[in-house]
TrEMBL record:
Gene3D superfamilies xref list: 6.10.250.3250, Ribosomal protein L13
Chain intervals with Basic and acidic residues compositional bias: 97-107
Record keywords, A-Z: Ribonucleoprotein, Ribosomal protein
Keyword Cytoplasm belongs to the record: no
SUPFAM superfamilies named in the record: Ribosomal protein L13
Stated name of the protein: Putative 60S ribosomal protein L16
């Protein structure tokens, strides 16, 4: 709990930023996973847990189904992106294996870090 009636608490509340979804500078950045924050690693098996979406829905938030639908779309797009990425990686691997490069060029490329 924040002591919002004190000067310190009021200043803290003014500094607080809350976003629904991902804020604009970060919505086009690749999302990452923080392993230290994963529920499966932090909680013992059998412990109860809750999600912000469920809690918000219980107190009147009306967009749980919208977020679930958007999350499904995001997963489909992510799967398609991963399939394209895997195909491109496989194509690059095949091209590097089948490329015929002489020894002098290989030495020069190794000097550049390839």
């Amino acid at each position: 709990m924040i002591p919002h009636k004190t000067a310190r608490g009021a200043a803290a509340m003014e500094r607080l930023k809350v976003f629904e979804g991902v804020p604009p500078p970060y919505d086009h950045v690749k999302r990452v996973v923080v392993p230290q924050a994963l529920r499966v690693l932090r909680l013992k098996p059998g412990r109860k847990y809750c999600t912000v979406g469920r809690l918000s829905h219980e107190v009147g938030w009306k967009y749980q189904d919208v977020v679930a639908r958007l999350e499904e779309r995001r997963k489909v797009k992510g799967a398609a992106y991963y399939a394209r990425k895997k195909a491109a990686r496989r194509q690059l691997s095949d091209a590097t294996k089948s490329a015929k490069v002489d020894e002098k060029t290989k030495e020069q490329l190794a000097g550049y870090g390839y």
